[in-house]
Amino acid sequence: MPRPTKAQFTALIVASMMFMEQLDGTILATALPSIANSLHVDTVATSVALTSYIIGLAIFIPASGALADRLGSRSVLMVAICIFVTSSLLCAQANSLPFLACMRTLQGIGGALMVPIGRLVIIRSTPRDQLVRTMTWMMLPATLGPLLGPVVGGFITTWFSWRWNFYLNIPIGLVGLGLTWRFIPQIYEPTPPPFDLKGMVLAGGGLALLSVFAELFSHAEGSITLRLAMLGAGCLLMAIYCIHAFRIPAPLLDFRLMRIPTFRISVFAGAASRVAVGSLPFLMPSFLQIGMGLNAAQSGLVTFTAPIGALLTRPFVPAILKRWGFRRVLMFNGVSAAVVFTLVASFRLPHALWLFSLILACAGAAQAIQFSAYNTIAYADVPASSMSAATSLYSTMQQIMLSAGICIAAGTLTVLGQIYGHTTPTLGDFSAGFLVTGAVSLLAVPFAASLAPSAGASMSGNKH
């Protein structure tokens, strides 16, 4: 592989932040029983450690671009890394669940600022004809987070302590801090519009409530009244925000960007695809362990292959897009995702597990191509003056759709349980969950088909 350019090296620095954030999330999920035992609480209650992080993430993602415009991209990134590392250290020292939840919220704020602003730096500092290759470099290390998380988390929790899962962020964060100070450019907006504080309260509050609803719903926690209240209040705040956003010239989340065809199609097609991807961390471990009777170690080894498929495919993404273009690649991947989910749903244990692993590897490869394409073409026609707003809106939609995937999968299992009267989901229930989310992913195809054949040609190099 050729030596990385300056833009690609910047992308690798941003990818290290994504790696740290994703590794932290996947590691923690494996450590919840150990945390419950250490803090003398019920295991179910420790899910607040996941929910509180999502709250911090949801509130501050919309504000990320606006803050970078005012304070400078490098400055905000360095502050974000410091917040993430400091809160990780404090999480490791937690002796009570409320304290851990508060520090996880702070950690979510750091995570909300790191990745969107890192992506903004790359988009603003990279020529459009190099963006596909640069974004591919950014996604390579980030792929390792989900790959290593369950394995590293299980090892650390078993042989050391759950606290070391948080200590692991410190050296990674310090290296990222030094590289950011040395290599990330300080990019400002010369004359930024007034900061939309009212919009931040409305959008951040609405997204936080909807995220908490998704978390409660996916784990079947809280009363129905509480969940409906969260859903209703979140939708109400977002409705008020939409009215507010169209009344001011520079809202925090600018929905007027949806008038740009490539951005709009990337958001909507990507939404359908991310619902399917968001459901996988919820469905897959339970499908293998509850539905098929595998133990946690066997389940981890089987799912290990999906990120490997993504990792091996990413270097070929620029050539694939150059050969076939964004429109055809996204249409094909939309269909292939639904096919893969159908194959997963129909799998039963008497079949060889290596075949199931191969299916997951193909799924990982398809996702690598698909999301590299989405994350690039979204910005093909966005004016330079609107890049901050576009990055904030796109990152926010990503988070919403990933949470929606969990809700749809959990809702499918809940409805089937009520229909058939069983409290524990069966193998057939999980299969239905995969079929439903796979069907949702198929909705990406007509959106992708509406792209112009020449869409993103300046980025992909495809001329026909």
UniProtKB/TrEMBL annotation:
GO terms for molecular function: transmembrane transporter activity. The keyword Nucleotidyltransferase does not apply. The chain crosses the membrane at residues 45-68, 75-100, 135-160, 166-185, 197-218, 224-244, 296-317, 329-347, 353-379, 400-420, 432-452. The keyword Transmembrane helix applies. One of its GO terms (cellular component) is plasma membrane. Residues 10-456 form the Major facilitator superfamily (MFS) profile domain. Pfam families: MFS_1. InterPro entries: MFS, MFS_dom, MFS_trans_sf. Signal peptide: none annotated. Keywords: Cell membrane, Membrane, Transmembrane, Transmembrane helix, Transport. It is found in: Cell membrane. It is a multi-pass membrane protein. This is MFS transporter. It comes from Acetobacter oryzoeni.
